[in-house]
Amino acid sequence: ASRNHPIRATLFPGDGIGPEIANSVKQVFNTNEVPIEWEEHYVGDKVDPRTESFLTWESLEAVRKNGVGLKGPMATPIGKGHRSLNLTLRKELGLYANVRPCYSLEGYKTRYDDVNLVTIRENTEGEYSGLEHQVVRGVVESLKVITRQASLRVAEYAFYYAKAHGRQRVSAIHKANIMRKTDGLFLKTVPSFFLCCREVAEKYPEINYEEVIIDNCCMMTVHPIFYGSSPDLGKTHCNIGEGGIALAEAVHGSAPDIAGKNLANPTALLLSGVMMLRHLKLHDKADQIHNAIIKTIAEGRYRTADLGGSSTTSEFTKAICDHL
Ligand code: NAD
């Protein structure tokens, strides 16, 4: 990629504060001369029958074609007859691995200052299978489906990620003590998540592999929600889909209470953009932007209200650009 041959990436600014923080990303990327050309898509105001949602088929196609995208928060309109926007993206683009880095920001004091953890969560089955039904009145059932194919796929991605990012250890997080078949440890005849992880681990002898029960993992990481959905620990994530599609997004919502007021903190979407750049192997650009964000927050002169400051989105963004 170069200025003359930029990489096309799909941008969903999203709703609420989305357009404001997306502007901040565009400004910072521009200042740092990142060779990316954005193809912007907005959520529509009527259901596209081809996707059964407010996202058009064309916008999904744009992600497939470009292979890479950045997504702001989307507010799913309340009403019947359409799918959740995030679910549409996940299903239509086959986004199977949800990658959530979580690390301490230098210069911004929190309870632990040496956090450096990446959660990779299988996103298409297990509790997310979406297979629920009523057995009889008053009794409902939700199916947790685990397949060998999806387990191997996410395990392969986890080890690939570890190797590509110079990390030394992969831990398989499970509840096999209770869910013996799905998370499975004991019956070798079924295609359990565990056996798949072990199978992949054998191909990566240079990476330490361990198995940790989810309860213990929670104790160690203070994860508040079942199986790795902890928006307050990691504010940014990237979804990896079939054929290597990467869709990075901020974890937070559209913050309707502060939308349009120039008050939003663009850090999460900016760091999502940084993840996208790393996926594209634009490591220098990613490092420069990452460092400029860290420096701005650490200095403390320009912080948005959520971090205890009084700067606007534009002032905070300008401070980052000045560091570049
Ligand atoms: P929210 O994250 O939008 O807001 C929670 C609180 O955090 C609010 O007080 C808000 O002002 C604040 N906040 C969030 N992001 C901020 C930022 N970048 N800077 C400063 N303050 C910020 O959560 P919610 O209120 O539960 O949801 C609002 C809407 O967002 C809903 O329509 C929901 O469906 C949608 N949502 C979308 C996503 C997504 O697209 N990934 C995720 C969560 C919620």
TrEMBL record:
Keywords annotated in UniProt: Oxidoreductase
Matches recorded under Pfam families: Iso_dh (PF00180)
GO biological process, one term: isocitrate metabolic process
Cited SMART domains: Iso_dh
Isopropylmalate dehydrogenase-like domain location: 8-320
GO MF, one annotated term: isocitrate dehydrogenase (NAD+) activity
InterPro entries: IsoPropMal-DH-like_dom
GO CC annotations on file: mitochondrion
Record has Oxidoreductase as a keyword: yes
Family: Belongs to the isocitrate and isopropylmalate dehydrogenases family.
PANTHER family recorded: DECARBOXYLATING DEHYDROGENASES-ISOCITRATE, ISOPROPYLMALATE, TARTRATE, ISOCITRATE DEHYDROGENASE [NAD] SUBUNIT ALPHA, MITOCHONDRIAL
Protein name: Isopropylmalate dehydrogenase-like domain-containing protein
Protein's organism: Stephania cephalantha
